[in-house]
């Protein structure tokens, strides 16, 4: 079928507040050209993130009403724990209030000066928690993943030869963990193949380095494996997920993505000693081990969402929806990541705005233009988010300058997506009029959340 049919019915709605372009230009100026600082009521279509922005199902809402709020030993935790164990096979499950809390606990224990964490591509909060511990994060994305316009089935893969070389150079004893993010968010939402995960597992076990999965979009990645990797077409998504996690020693997850929840996350693993250390820190920072900063109702919603996300009718709709917008933009000449990713469409801002140098943040300039033109909020994944400074305060740019349009799950209809395409294409037609931005104020860590910018004169 050519028409995308949403595999759900809508029984509750919330209003969108319309405004004019003149309004939005004033709003942008007041927000210092940073969409994170724009009030949600001033946004028409919000594609800033797919994290915590999903629409929950009637089953999840029913589960919320049944959530047990006991401080310790809640049956809602038992349901949550069972769901995670069935998917991952890990015997130890530690709830946290969201993914970055799991990262904070893990890297506080394993990080430190002189340590290196290796990944296909670390996302912003993961890298920040690693660096906050004093350690260094190293991205070893495969070569095809570095070229947005070049299609390849698994552009989220880690470079195996570079992994082996880095382990030899840094020393296995200085590498507390290798982390594979599925799908690779910073790399365009691209999937990682099962073969790549198996090879990483083999290298890690040979060198006695723990191997973890950042699993926030595990179901989307598993569906790509089913579609694109030989030998998996006849397997179910739960079967593929079981195999994927079987090669790892543990995982972190933000349940705000592929569990449709508005809050929540977890750590899961085999290592009893590490788990005990994590639980000790959890109790100090998050809460008791059977709620970890979450209400019982949230644990129920996550348990239900983890099962719903593996339904293939949903995943077919989800992946096809992203392809639809990618194809529409590509047909109009807009430079987008090829092939389409799992949760978002990524525009290559460097190709979209070649006249704006990286020092003037072309991705952020495009983000602001999309909001001004049509009230569409997106996020820059480039040198504002990942750029660093050298000793002379000169910008060390990110590997790619991308703009991510993250599609919340089960929230927008095809007409919303058609509108988004129209806005992007309209901006593309007058792209030569856009100007770069300069930072006027920034935080030392995760600056993109609160940075203030002004147009370059």
Automatic annotation (TrEMBL):
<dbReference type="Pfam" id="PF01212">
    <property type="entry name" value="Beta_elim_lyase"/>
</dbReference>
<dbReference type="InterPro" id="IPR018176">
    <property type="entry name" value="Tryptophanase_CS"/>
</dbReference>
<comment type="similarity">
    <text>Belongs to the beta-eliminating lyase family.</text>
</comment>
<dbReference type="InterPro" id="IPR015421">
    <property type="entry name" value="PyrdxlP-dep_Trfase_major"/>
</dbReference>
<dbReference type="InterPro" id="IPR015422">
    <property type="entry name" value="PyrdxlP-dep_Trfase_small"/>
</dbReference>
<dbReference type="InterPro" id="IPR015424">
    <property type="entry name" value="PyrdxlP-dep_Trfase"/>
</dbReference>
<protein>
    <submittedName>
        <fullName>Tryptophanase</fullName>
    </submittedName>
</protein>
<feature type="domain" description="Aromatic amino acid beta-eliminating lyase/threonine aldolase">
    <location>
        <begin position="46"/>
        <end position="422"/>
    </location>
</feature>
<keyword id="KW-0663">Pyridoxal phosphate</keyword>
<keyword id="KW-0456">Lyase</keyword>
<dbReference type="InterPro" id="IPR001597">
    <property type="entry name" value="ArAA_b-elim_lyase/Thr_aldolase"/>
</dbReference>
<dbReference type="InterPro" id="IPR011166">
    <property type="entry name" value="Beta-eliminating_lyase"/>
</dbReference>
């Amino acid at each position: 079928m050519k028409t995308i049919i949403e595999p759900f019915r809508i029984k509750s709605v919330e209003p969108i507040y319309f405004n004019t372009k003149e309004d939005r230009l004033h709003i942008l100026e007041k927000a210092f050209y940073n969409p994170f600082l724009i009030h949600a009521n001033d946004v028409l279509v919000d594609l800033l993130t797919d994290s915590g922005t999903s629409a929950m199902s009637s089953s999840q809402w029913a589960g919320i009403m049944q959530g047990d709020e006991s401080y310790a030993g809640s049956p809602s935790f038992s349901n949550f724990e069972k769901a995670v164990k069935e998917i991952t096979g890990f015997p130890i499950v530690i709830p946290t209030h969201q993914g970055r809390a799991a990262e904070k606990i893990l890297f506080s224990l394993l990080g430190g000066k002189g340590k290196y964490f290796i990944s296909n591509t670390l996302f912003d909060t993961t890298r920040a928690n690693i660096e906050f511990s004093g350690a260094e994060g190293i991205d070893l994305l495969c070569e095809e993943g570095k070229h947005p316009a070049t299609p390849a089935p698994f552009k989220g893969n880690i470079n195996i030869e570079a992994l082996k070389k880095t382990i030899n150079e840094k020393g296995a004893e200085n590498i507390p963990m290798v982390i594979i993010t599925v799908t690779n968010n910073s790399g365009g939402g691209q999937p990682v193949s099962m073969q790549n995960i198996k090879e990483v597992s083999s290298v890690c076990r040979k060198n006695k380095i723990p191997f973890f999965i950042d699993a926030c979009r595990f179901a989307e990645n598993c569906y790509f494996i089913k579609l694109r990797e030989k030998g998996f077409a006849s397997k179910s998504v739960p079967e593929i997920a079981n195999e994927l996690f079987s090669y790892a020693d543990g995982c972190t997850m933000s349940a705000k993505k592929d569990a449709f929840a508005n809050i929540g996350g977890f750590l899961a693993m085999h290592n009893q000693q590490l788990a005990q250390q994590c639980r000790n820190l959890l109790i100090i920072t998050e809460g008791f081990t059977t709620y970890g900063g979450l209400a019982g109702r949230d644990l129920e919603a996550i348990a239900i969402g983890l099962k719903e996300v593996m339904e293939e009718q949903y995943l077919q709709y989800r992946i096809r929806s992203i392809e639809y917008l990618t194809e529409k933009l590509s047909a109009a000449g807009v430079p987008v990541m090829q092939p389409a990713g799992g949760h978002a469409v990524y525009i290559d801002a460097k190709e979209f705005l070649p006249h704006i140098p990286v020092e003037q943040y072309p991705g952020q300039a495009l983000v602001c233009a999309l909001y001004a033109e049509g009230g569409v909020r997106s996020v820059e994944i480039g040198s504002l988010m990942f750029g660093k400074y050298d000793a002379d305060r000169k910008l060390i740019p990110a590997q790619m300058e991308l703009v991510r349009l993250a599609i919340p799950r089960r929230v927008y209809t095809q007409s919303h997506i058609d509108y988004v395409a129209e806005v992007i294409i309209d901006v593309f037609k007058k792209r030569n009029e856009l100007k770069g931005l300069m930072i006027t104020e920034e935080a030392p860590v995760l600056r993109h959340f609160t940075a203030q910018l002004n147009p370059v004169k």
